[in-house]
Every structure is written in structure tokens, then in C-alpha cells.
Amino acid sequence: MPKPENDSLEQIYNIHTHVFTLAHVPDGFLGFGIVPAARNPIVAKFIDWLLTNIHPFKNNDTYDRLAVFARAAAFPTSKDIFVHMKGYYPYGTKFCVLAMDFEHMGAGKTLAYEKQLQDMLAIKNDQELGEFIIPFIAIDPRRKNLLDLVRKYVEEAGFCGLKLYPPLGYYPDDPALHPVYAYAQENGLPLIAHCSPGGVYQKSRISGAVKKELLKKIRPIPWQVRWKWWKVNKHLTAAYSHPENYVPVLEKFPELKICLGHFGGIEEWDRYMNDSWKPDEERPFDKAWLAVILDMMQMYPNLYADIAYTVEAERLLPMISVLVRNPLFRTHILYGSDCYMVEMDKSERAFSVNVRGYLGEADFKQIAQDNPREFLGIA
Ligand SMILES: [Zn+2]
After folding, report:
1. CA 229 to ligand 1 center in whole angstroms
2. Per the confidence metrics, is the pTM higher than 0.85?
3. Which one, 132, 154, 208, 225, has least CB within 10 Å?
């Protein structure tokens, strides 16, 4: 039987997804020896049961991530995750799968980064699945021979873009990244960068001088930092993700297409809604990140943002609708879900249908088909 064409849109793109597994993350990724234990499927099942039935730490990010991983353990390989995710979308949907380089975050040793890339490559080389994956390679300025690795995966394996995750401990404008940006600009490779104060973060000790620099970019300063409390690193390294950090990159590489993942993130969208500031505010770090991104979008035509995870909070759907209808931003917003990091309270299908139903067909087509094509350089 031929595959049914069960959608009115010619092509849907989900610009922001992941397929890494517990095998790809360092032992100290979640703390408390959880990762090595949860690699055992029976333990993972037990954790899943425990977390589904009692909610001891709801809204704690270690808890959330653990729950996501415990559930994902039902899909032991990257390919299994990909097949599962794909099954929630109309046949033919394409997925940008973003690699993550966890090796330098100080959570213990992992030599699994190349394994993760190889597992993504296996999907790309799969007869049934290959045409639906658009793989992005993660770049970290601390990795040796970074440009060689990027060239290898782009030129020999057909990877299509770059992924950046600054809260793991570096600035987007790190000079070690410049040769990679130059290469990407020359070859039309887009960059997707994690841009929210949340997410995973550097675990190793942060020196006093670096701390001082980071603090200049955080508003308001969280009490955990003030009181040198638990998770100081989490709040400090959020400053690496600040949208303002991309200005020098956009200035130096004006042809490089950059997508700020999560559009600043749920917390900053809430801050945008709740805070008041002067239009000529000279201290950008006092402004909600969403406002900073919108300012930057008007200055840099190659700056995009995706809605991955952000509108998981349904109260924010009206805001995304307002933005998509605004001609200033309409062509620069991309549909993404952050699968499988988002599959907590609703499925991928529920997420995508929710967004599509709220925006309507024309606006959904704009962010899930037209804009991704432009961003990915697909004619
Ligand atoms: Zn993500």
C-alpha cells in the first residue's frame, strides 16, 4: 500500500528535536548516580513508575529531565526515538535533529559524542528514515580539532547545520568558534543555539573572575546566587545564553543564519508579560530576553528564533500568534518542539496540533514550512 498523503501542507519541518539517549550523556549529568543506574532498563521502568505515580519534586528540573529520560528509556536507541517522534507527525515531515556535546561540561568523562553523531548518521543512512532527518552537529570551542570534525560530518556524512549550547560553559563569541562560523557562512550552514536561562549547565567550578563577568548579565540576580546557595552554577551559566551575546557574532558573520532556540524561554516570556521597562533602556540585561531578541531581529535579517518548548505553556500561545502576525517578525519564526525534552505533559502530536490549531493554517504554514525552507536554504 502506498504511503498516504495525509496532510494539506506540502512539507512540515520541525526545526528543533533531539534523539540522544542515556548512553550519550556523562555519568554525572543528573547527579546522585542516577544516570549509570537508569541505564538499566528495569531501573528506568521503576523510576518512570515512581515519577508517574508520585510527584515529589514537580517542576524541579532534575526531576523533569529524569522523568523524560526514564520514559525515553522505552526507546533505547536514537533510531527508536526518531521513529517514535516521526509517528506523531503527518507522513513526510522532516526533523532537524540537534546533537549535544556534553564532554566539556564537567559532569564526568564521556567519549560518547562521536557515538551520538554516528547514531544520527545511522538514521540518515537508513533507507526508510534517511530523507526525514536533517542532522545538526554540536560545536563546543573547547573541543580539539573542532573544524576538522565539522568538515568531516558536513562533507562526508551530509550534516546540514550547527548546534550551540552555551550554558555548558562558553560564550557564543568564543574566538575558537570563529573558524567554524566562517566555514558555516561560506557553505550556507545555519546555526541553532540554545537561548533560554534554563536547560542543562556547566557542573565544574567557576572561577571568581568569570563569575564576576557572568553576574553583569543576569537580571534579576537570583537569591541562590546572592546566598551562594545550591545550583549557583545553573543561574550563573544562564548568562552564557543571553541573546545579547550573539551581537558580535552577527556583526562579524552577517551572512550566517542564526536561530535562537526557545525564543528566550518560558521564564523570559513570562517576564516580558509581567515587567515594565523604558523603550530606550540602555541596560539590555534588565530587559526580558524576548524583548532583546525582538529588538535584534529588526537589526539583523539573518536572525531567527524557534518556539521549541516555549509554547508548551499554553498561556503563551496568544503571544506567539501576535508575533507571527507582525510583519517585522513573521518570516523569522520557526516551528520546533524540542522533542523529546518536552514530552512531559502532552505528546508531540498534542503539542503540534495545539500550535497549529491556535495559529490557523496560514500562520502555521509560515512557521513550519516557508520559514524553515528559507532558514535551511532549501529552494
Ligand atoms: Zn533543545
Report:
1. 27
2. yes
3. 208
Q: Note whether residue 218 is domain-resident.
A: yes
Q: Write down the pLDDT at residue 313.
A: 74
**61 found inside a domain:** no
- 27 alpha carbon to ligand 1 midpoint, in Å? 20
CATH number of the domain to which 150 belongs:
3.20.20.140
How many whole angstroms from 261 Cα to the centroid of ligand 1? 7
The pLDDT, as a whole number, for residue 141 is 97
Spacing, Cα 371 to ligand 1 middle (Å)? 19
Q: In what order do the strands lie in the sheet with 13-17?
A: 13-17, 94-98, 133-139, 161-164, 191-194, 258-261, 303-306, 333-334
Residues 166-187 have a mean pLDDT of 97
Domain range for residue 148? 13-21+75-372
Ligand 1 center to residue 340 CA distance, Å? 9
Structural contact between residues 180 and 146, judged by C-beta atoms closer than 8 angstroms: yes
Measured over the CA atoms of residue 154, residue 199, residue 344 and residue 108, the dihedral's sign is positive
Tens of pLDDT, residue by residue over 18-35, are 998 878 877 777 766 777
CA of 164 to the centre of ligand 1 (A): 10
Q: Tell me if 231 is assigned to some domain.
A: yes
pLDDT averaged over every residue in the chain? 87
- Measured in Å, residue 167 CA sits from the centre of ligand 1 at 12
Quote the ligand 1 centre to 51 CA distance (angstroms): 22
CA dist 34 → 25, 29, 63, 69 (Å): 11, 8, 11, 11
Q: Is a pLDDT exceeding 60 seen at residue 127? A: yes
Whole-number percent of the chain with pLDDT over 70: 86
Per residue in 130-154, pLDDT (tens digit) is 999 999 999 999 999 999 999 999 9
Q: Is residue 332 part of a domain?
A: yes
**How many structural domains compose the chain?**
1
